[in-house]
Amino acid sequence: MTVILGLTGSIGMGKSTTGRMFVEEGVPVHDSDAAVHRLYAGAAAPLIEARFPGTVVDGAVDRERLARAVLGKPEAFKALEEIIHPLVRQDADAFVAENRQKGTPIVVLDIPLLFETGGEDRVDRIVVVTAPAEEQRSRVLSRPGMTEEKFAAILARQVPDAEKRALADFIIDTGNGMEAARDAVKSVIAALSPAETPSP
User: Fold this and answer.
1) How many Cα atoms are found within 13 Å in the side-chain-facing hemisphere of 159?
2) Among 37, 82, 153, 192, which one has the highest count of C-beta atoms within 10 angstroms of its own C-beta?
3) What secondary structure letter does DSSP report for 120?
4) What is the pLDDT of residue 195?
5) What residues are designated binding site?
6) Cβ(110)–Cβ(123) under 8 Å?
7) Nearest Cα to 104, choosing from 13, 183, 30, 180?
């Protein structure tokens, strides 16, 4: 049986880095952000162009043009989500099916908005990546093009960190350094790995 582990966390908590640690430990990870990038250059492009004309250039979605079309417009943002979320879910379902067929013991679905999109029903266990609020803030505000306003708008759309932690099966705190996070990843994998059946 394949255990489906949901990996989530608010912006700037270190989720992507934690996802890479699972990959380094041999656990396949489906990255929703990477799937969106692929879809923007593929199946999603004509659908987005039809809804937001002028946002596709040379067959791929121009992220800056799309941002201008939806930023600060809740209805437009919702329309974009209605296009992209089902496609990402299909991509993730195909990933899980392929790994089930191979008999992979654990797979990770990296879902940034797992709680916000009702993704709990798609996974068996949930890992929430966290960090102290001051560290989260400094990480996010050091990103190119990030402003206090953008950061506040992103946080407003996300379930608060404390609520996420309360709903988690496992918590990985990336504020304690890379090695501590890697040890936590190994502990999660060990907890989910089937116990060896002792020989009679």
Assistant:
1) 19
2) 192
3) G
4) 60
5) 12-17
6) no
7) 30
Helix axes of 74-102 and 44-51: crossing angle, nearest 10 degrees = 170
pLDDT at 198 over 80: no
CA dihedral of residues 57, 63, 66, 68 (deg, nearest 10): -120
Long-range CB contact pairs, 138-146, < 8 A, 24+: 139/12, 139/14, 140/11, 140/12
- Separation in Å, CA 19 to CA 13, 31, 37, 40, 97: 12, 8, 17, 22, 20
**pLDDT at site 197:** 41
What sign results for the dihedral spanned by CA atoms 108, 156, 173, 177? Answer: positive
- Residues placed in the known binding site for ATP: 12-17
Residue 199 — pLDDT band, cuts 50, 70, 90? very low
pLDDT in tens, 21-49: 999 999 999 998 899 999 999 999 999 99
Domains of the chain listed by start with CATH number:
1-28+105-193 (3.40.50.300), 34-103 (3.40.50.300)
Say what percent of the chain tops pLDDT 90.
82
d(C-alpha 136, C-alpha 119), whole Å = 23
Residues 191 and 170: beta-carbon distance below 8 Å: yes
Q: Indicate the pTM of the whole model.
A: 0.86
